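Pilot study result, target chain (178 residues):
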Amino acid sequence: MRNMHAHRIHRTTGFTLLELAVVIVLTGIVAASVIPAVSSMTQTRGPAAAEAIARELGVARQHALNTGRPSAAHVDIAMSQIGLHELSPNGGNIQTMLDAFGQARPLLVLGDLFPGISLSNFEGFDGAFGALMWFGSDGAPELRSTEGTLLGLATHDARLELAGGETIVVRRISGLIE
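Predicted structure:
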């Protein structure tokens, strides 16, 4: 006859010490491989932001050449953003530059596209810390009033500096963007 007292096997739920050790080792290996990748990603943001700014300035210059109307890049250090503007066709007002579809060009907001990157300094074509960088209808850098009235040609190279140390220079004579 069978033993009426069946032995119950008690199994506790949980993880063994070996399983926990394996998980900790694997987590360490993954962390060790991710940290350098994140570090290199943040190091490439500065140069990428500088390239984006140079492209935006190039758009302003090329727009002036294409339309025959002066165009400007408005640099806002506090907000770390750049917006493009132009003189209206009748020459009286400064307006936001339109894209090919007739819509206002969006601002280049560095913090949105490149987290942790910001503008630290801007020196305009007049050597002062102005906000507008104008390009004439021939693509040459110009000095203009806040209303857009021509004051003369640029007297200094313009410089935009990022907090990471990258610098974008616009040459005063040629308008070359470096």
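One observation from the pilot: Residues 45-170 form a domain with the minor pseudopilin epsh fold fold (CATH 3.55.40.10). A full batch analysis is planned for the follow-on phase.
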